[in-house]
C-alpha cells in the first residue's frame, strides 16, 4: 500500500478535526467536554461522596430535632397532667382511707330515709368510677412521661452521631479539596438573590432517588427531574445565558444528568475568562445557587477558581488549565 503524501495527510487531519468539532456542536456538547471539570476523577468522586454524606447526615439531624421538639411537647403535657392528677390521687387515697373505717353496708344502713339510701348508693358508684378513671389516667401519664424521657435521650444520642458524621464528611471534603487549593475563599454572595421554588422531598425530608429520565432541553441527552427543576428555576429568575447540561464524559455528574454548565456569556462558551457584565452575571448566578442550595438539592457549585459545598462553604479551586477547567467562563452546578 502506497504511503500517503504529507500534504494529503495534513488535509485529512484537518478534515477529521472539522468533523469532530461538528459532531460536538450538533450533540450540544461544549468544546471543553474532553476535560471534565479540572482536578482528577478521584477528586470528583470524593467531593460527591463527601457532599452526599453531609447532606444525608444533615437531613437526619433535622428529622431528629423535629422529633425532639414533638417529644418535648408530649413530655411537658404528660408531666403537667401527672402533677394535677397527683393531687387528685392523694385525695382519692385519703377518701379511701376514711371510708375504709366504715363498711359500705353500715354507711347505707345509717341512711335517714329511702331517698338518702338511694343517693348514697349512687354516690358510692360514681365515686368508684371517678377514682378508677383517675388512677388509670395517672398511671397512663406516668408511663407516657417515662417513654418520652427515654425517647428524648435516644434523640440526643442520634443528634450527636449525625453531628460527628457531618464533621467527618466536612474533613473528607477539605482533604479532597487540598488537591486543588482548598483554602478559604471570599466566595460569591448576593442577599438580593431571588428565592427558588423548592424541589420535592420525601416525607422524612430526604431527597428522592432519581436517574437520568428527562429529556435535556440543552442537548440530545437526559437529566434528572431535580436537575431540570433547578435549570427551569434559574431561567425563570432571568438566568438565561447559554447552558449545556448532559454530555458524554468519563466521570462526574454530566453523563448522569446531574450537572449543568451555565456559560457566563449569553450565546456561547468563550475560551477566555469572563469579564465585565459576563463576570457579574456569573457572580450572581453562583450566589443564586448557593442561596437556594437547600431548596434545590445542590451538591456543589464551581465558579471562577472557587468551589462551594454545604459542608465547607466557598473554597479555592485552583485546578490548572484553560478557562473551562478553572471555571472562569461558566458556572458549574452539580445536583444531589
Give a summary of the structure in a few sentences.
The chain has 336 residues and is an alpha+beta fold. The chain is built from 7 helices and 9 strands, in the order H-H-H-H-E-E-E-H-E-E-H-H-E-E-E-E.
Task: Name the features.
7 helices; 336 residues; 7-stranded antiparallel sheet; 54% helix; two-stranded antiparallel ribbon
Overview of this protein structure:
There is one protein chain. The protein has 336 residues and is of the alpha+beta class. It folds into two domains: 159 residues, no CATH class; 114 residues. It contains seven helices and nine strands, in the order ααααβββαββααββββ. The strands form two sheets. The protein has a seven-stranded antiparallel sheet with strand order 1-8-7-6-9-5-4, sandwiched between helices. It has a two-stranded antiparallel ribbon with strand order 2-3. Helix 2 runs antiparallel to helix 4. It is elongated and about 110 Å long. The two termini are 55 Å apart. Pfam families: VldE. Keywords: Coiled coil, Signal. It comes from Actinoplanes regularis. This is ARB-07466-like C-terminal domain-containing protein.
How many helices in DSSP terms? 7
Helices and strands, in order, run as HHHHEEEHEEHHEEEE
Helical percentage = 40-55%
How much is the average pLDDT?
A: 82
Query: Which value, in Å, is the CA radius of gyration?
Result: 34 Å
Number of strands: 9
General shape = elongated
Strand content is 5-15%
Largest sheet: 7 strands, antiparallel
Distance between the termini: 55 Å
* Major β-sheet strand ordering: 1-8-7-6-9-5-4
